Amino acid sequence: MLTKIAKRVNRTSIRAFSTSCWGGVEGAPADPILGLNEAFKKDTHPNKQLLGMGAYRTDEGKPLILPAVHKAAQIILDKKMDHEYAPIDGQASYQEKCATLAFGEGSSIVSDNRYTACQGISGTGSIRLFFDFMHKFFPNKSAKVWVPTPTWPTHKGIANAAGLDWAEYRYYDSNKRVFDVNGMLEDLDKAPAEQIILLHTCAHNPTGCDPTQDDWKQIFEVCKRKGHFCAFDNAYQGFASGDLDKDSFSLRHFAHNYDRVAVLQSFAKNFGLYGERAGCVHFVTSDAAESQRVSSRIKQIARPTYSSPPIHGARLVDVVLGDKDLTASWHQSLVDMSSRMNSMRIGFREKLESLGSTHDWSHITTQIGMFAYTGITTKQVNQLKDEKHIYMTGDGRISIAGLNTGNLDYVSEAFHNVTKHGPLGTD
Fold first, then answer.
1. What secondary structure does DSSP assign to 377-388, as a single string?
2. Which of 89, 146, 152, 216 is catalytic?
3. Sequential DSSP letters for 259-284
4. Nearest-CA neighbor of 122 among 325, 266, 221?
5. Cis peptide before 87 (omega within 30 of 0)
6. 152 in active site
7. Which of 16, 366, 377, 396 is exposed most, by the fewest CB atoms within 10 A?
8. Average predicted confidence (pLDDT) for the chain
């Protein structure tokens, strides 16, 4: 009898565990940006163009290793630097140079140690560290993360992953194709007090529309009066205009007049260190003692997440910013890259106008940074992909860095052809 029962139990167990453990897992949709790259790679058309990826390209359409970075890599080899673990929060010299770059030479925030810094895994990792910290320690437990509409889609995903809800504030006027300062001010003012406000330091992604310095001052006054905590996604400092100080006006104005500020730093774009994942998260504090306490808690979050950060990209930044000549070379690269992108903006607009387009394309040249928010519809985006093999995100955002003298005519003609018989998405 016991033998028969054992056999029945054994057969039942086999049936129960014969189904795959992951049989019920549904596939995730393709990433709206990285998925473009995969589709582009599979396309065999000779004239295919990738305008969706946020990575700088030369006029020959090639990735660029900045001269200063190349020399820094050689210095690292010549000095036979080791591959030992970095501290949980990264090397102290790297942290200080990152802070000086963000807050400015001679900043009292840095000299008085009124900040804490932790090396993050580029911008995305720095944002995740920040959100995890805020979820655990920000006093207002009902606070939401307020993001501009539109924004980089992953902002929302990271907030959700960290256990935070998000809300949106108005940012872009799609009818006029300009920054909506009044809408933003009204929404931040009407939001409950002590919210977490995510701001783009410069070169807003995806619109390329930035507030003026006077706009930033008004935004600051509202945020300070409401007690909001302001976090600056600082992915394009120096890369937007070629001027590090000009591009950092917003975060410096806030940080030197208010201590509810964090900076989420990335060196993917302005150093070309996309795959090296070098970044840093900074919190402004009231004094050095508070900095130590905050630092201990950030490290407590980082330790079980990735233990210690990757060392090579941070070391490249550290070497460049620690050498006067390499720093000067880097500054020139920022001017060169931003100037090339600006020339492509002008060229794109002029080509469209010369083809007889009746649309107003002036927004292409008033926007700034890596991206242009063209205003074309999702239908027109798909038409460009299907008929001309031009890849971009569904909202009509293109990477200006993907344009060059070799493809400008082809792209401009394609845009003209899909828009000449009808309005743009916001006409």
1. -HHHHHHHHHHH
2. 152
3. S-EEEEEE-TTTS--TTTTEEEEEEE
4. 266
5. no
6. yes
7. 16
8. 93
pLDDT per position as a tens digit, 254-282? 999 999 999 999 999 999 999 999 999 99
Enter the DSSP assignment of 293.
H
Record the tokens describing residue 372, joined without a space: 């242009």
Q: What is the residue type of 198?
A: L
Q: What percent of the chain has pLDDT over 90?
A: 88
Write the burial class of residue 285 (CB in 10 Å: 0-12 exposed, 13-18 middle, 19+ buried): buried
d(CA 4, CA 9): 9
Gap between the Cα atoms of 301 and 340, Å rounded = 40
On whether the CB atoms of residues 243 and 292 are closer than 8 A, the answer is no
pTM of the entire predicted model: 0.91
Locus of tokens 């437990």: 141
Backbone angles phi, psi at 398, to 5 degrees: -125, 150
Kindly tell me if the per-residue pLDDT of 68 is higher than 60: yes
Q: Residues 97, 269, 385, 388: which is the catalytic one?
A: 269
**391: helix, strand or coil:** strand
One of 233, 247, 318, 395 is an active-site residue; which one?
Answer: 233
Rounded distance between C-alpha atoms, residue 87 and residue 413, angstroms: 53
Which structure tokens are listed for 283?
């919190």
Establish whether 233 is a catalytic residue. Answer: yes
166 given a catalytic annotation: no
The Cα 105–Cα 99 span in angstroms is 9
Residues 6+ apart with CB under 8 A from 62: none
Q: How far, rounded to the nearest angstrom, does the alpha carbon of residue 13 sit from its chain's CA centroid?
A: 50
Measured distance CA(285)–CA(113) in Å, rounded: 8
Cis peptide bond upstream of 206, omega within 30: yes
